[in-house]
Amino acid sequence: MDNITLNNGVQLPPIGFGVFQSSPEDTVDAVRSALDVGYRHVDTAAAYGNERQVGEGMRASGIDRDEIVLETKVFPSDYGYDETLHAFEKSTRKLGFDTIDIFILHQPTPDQFDTTVQAYKALEQLYADGRVRAIGVSNFMPHHLASLLEQTDIIPALNQVELHPYFTQPDVQRADAQHGILTQAWSPIGGITFYPGWGDQRVSVMDDDAIKTIAEAHGKTPAQVMLRWHLQQGRSAIPKSTNPTRIAENFDVFDFDLSDDELSTLDGLDRGVRNGPDPDGDSSRFRERTIPED
Predict the structure, then answer these.
(1) Minimal CA–CA distance to 112: which of 138, 76, 63?
(2) Which domains occur in the chain, in start order?
(3) Is 201's pLDDT higher than 80?
């Protein structure tokens, strides 16, 4: 499948490799395994605590740096103009690279949105200076986007949000599309519905009978069906794993097509229930967390 062209012309592979909750000890080998399989987009964040290991894994792979799209995120405790410029320095120092391909804000923090706007203006400056190739946001709802666009100059290249068959966020997808913003799915196979420690009342997307039926029809796994659903609807998807078999399986989604009826079935599974943090919730706990210098 062809790369996705962002609104500034940057090319993004449709399947990226995520390292959320990957321990530093596992991240180097996981990133190297992913790049060996064929991934060329790696997504991390300052808050994940593994940027250094992502950089190490990229270098250990032997793949040319220019062939890999590297994406990372600024955490709210580093919002503000000067603070976000410094966050860039922290991230590049840990990653071991002078530039970042895609640099995005991790949360909207609506209860202190002025600092969010200043953080985004810092991203605009980094983009103007050629230190990042594209800028964007994460977990922004339509009203957050509208407010940001009123106060800044560059339309985000992408918006990374929780998105899987049980939570499709159609209003966010529409708002993104209206502005030419790519919707990028975190937890694209619904991992957040079955991650350990995320609550006892969650229902795993992986166990859905409709998804299993579609998977069986194609000789694929439920995870592969969900990833194919994202790709055929034009989204970027970032599955995560540290298991080499799963890493390879999640990339093996380019040799089959879902029918229109199957896509509609998956769309119809939406339960409208968010599993991650509320983007309109109290952001004080984010602002209180310090991102280490090294």
Answers:
(1) 76
(2) 12-287 (3.20.20.100)
(3) no
